[in-house]
Write a structure and sequence with these properties.
The chain is of the alpha+beta class. It folds into two domains: 84 residues, Arc Repressor Mutant, subunit A (Orthogonal Bundle), CATH 1.10.10; 51 residues, Ferric-uptake regulator, C-terminal dimerisarion domain (Dna Ligase, domain 1). The chain has six helices and five strands, in the order H-H-H-H-E-E-E-E-H-E-H. A hairpin with a 5-residue loop joins strand 3 and strand 4. Helix 1 runs antiparallel to helix 2, helix 2 packs across helix 3 and helix 3 crosses helix 4.
């Protein structure tokens, strides 16, 4: 967890962004909630406990800046709020359509972006793999 935090702070500084108390609190919440892929509301609630006076608009602006500079990934959805994750490596997300939980699946992807470029000449800028279905808990409630 400390490595991810240090990496995010390093990326922040390389991007020319200052490490303000608000940004530090948002980074802390993102790192602590990595398995949850939190939405802006959760990030706001948790970061506001650390920095009084933090506004929701500051959280949205900061998340947008972090995403724009490649520090985090923004996961956009049609049927639920956007989620944010600090794991910017190419990986598979398991998205539960029952409870909305998102989980990283750490196995290798079926084809790497390098292989796609090598075979087709197309250079992927961003890669996003998702499986949508039901987590164990939701499956237990369905049966």
């Amino acid at each position: 967890m400390k490595d991810r935090k240090a990496t995010l702070i390093e990326k922040l500084k390389k991007s020319g962004l200052k490490l303000t108390p608000q940004r530090r609190a948002i980074i802390d919440v993102l790192i602590e909630n990595t398995p949850l892929h939190p939405d802006a509301g959760l990030i706001y609630q948790e970061a506001r406990k650390r920095v009084k006076g933090l506004s929701l608009s500051t959280v949205y602006y900061t998340l947008n800046e972090f995403s724009k500079h490649g520090m985090i990934k923004t996961l956009e959805f049609d049927r639920m709020e956007n989620r944010y994750e600090g794991n910017t490596s190419d990986h598979l997300n398991l998205v539960c359509i029952g409870c909305g939980r998102i989980e990283d699946y750490g196995k290798p992807l079926p084809i790497s972006s390098r292989e796609v470029e090598k075979q087709t000449g197309f250079r992927p800028h961003e890669v996003r793999f998702e499986y949508h279905g039901y987590c164990k808990e939701c499956l237990g409630r369905i049966k």
